[in-house]
Amino acid sequence: MIKRTLSVFLILVILLSFASCDDKDRFEYCELGIILTEDFEPYDSEGAFNVAYSDGNTIVGIARYSFVNCEELGLLSTYTPKKLAEVYLDMMDRTVDEGVKVYGDVPYFTYTETAEDGSEFFYMPTFYRTPYAYFVITFITPNSREVVGRVEFLEYIRTVYILNEYLQ
């Protein structure tokens, strides 16, 4: 009886795990990946990011800064992600909503920017370090979606991962 109950329980857990993954896709660039909803598709950021994806409301841009090229960019290869966020913020020379904050172990900051057509956008760059490079994942959404966007972005931050083959 216990084996049967355990078997039914395991089958239910497996089915629920499949159902919860149906609307998620993995997006990977070099050694870093992020899990986004299936609504995201490749987006042409016109060179602003190495790769970008959009679901029509949000743009997720991924920029990779190789340690080999850090010197050209004025970055040291010894920064922690938080120090990178602070240096990046200084290099941007822009007013931000608040200073660098940390969610879990991921540093980020937020700001708004006005486009040429007068529309405002909410930005949240987040910072990561892998064995070979820094990554900045920037989330962008219309400023009218800031509150909803912030919650979504913090959820996406939790899904970022380094590919196993780069951890050895």
Task: Characterise this structure.
There is one protein chain. The chain has helices spanning 2-21, 70-73, 81-92, 146-157; strands at 24-29, 32-37, 41-42, 51-54, 59-66, 101-103, 106-108, 111-114, 120-129, 133-142, 161-162. By secondary structure, it is α+β, with helices and mostly antiparallel strands. Strands 3-4-5-10-9-8 form a six-stranded antiparallel β-sheet. β1 and β2 (32-37) form a beta hairpin. The chain is globular, with a radius of gyration of 19 Å. The protein starts with a helix and ends in a 6-residue tail after the last strand. Residues 3-22 have low confidence and may be disordered.
Distance between the termini: 44 Å
Count helical runs: 4
What's the main sheet like?
Answer: 6 strands, antiparallel
Strand composition percent: 25-35%
Low-pLDDT residue spans: 3-22
What is the helical fraction, as a range of percent?
25-40%
Sum up the overall morphology in one term: globular
**Average pLDDT value?**
87
Structural class: alpha+beta
Number of strands: 11
Q: Order of SSEs, N→C?
A: HEEEEEHHEEEEEHE
- Computed over alpha carbons, the radius of gyration is 19 Å
Strand arrangement within the widest β-sheet reads 3-4-5-10-9-8
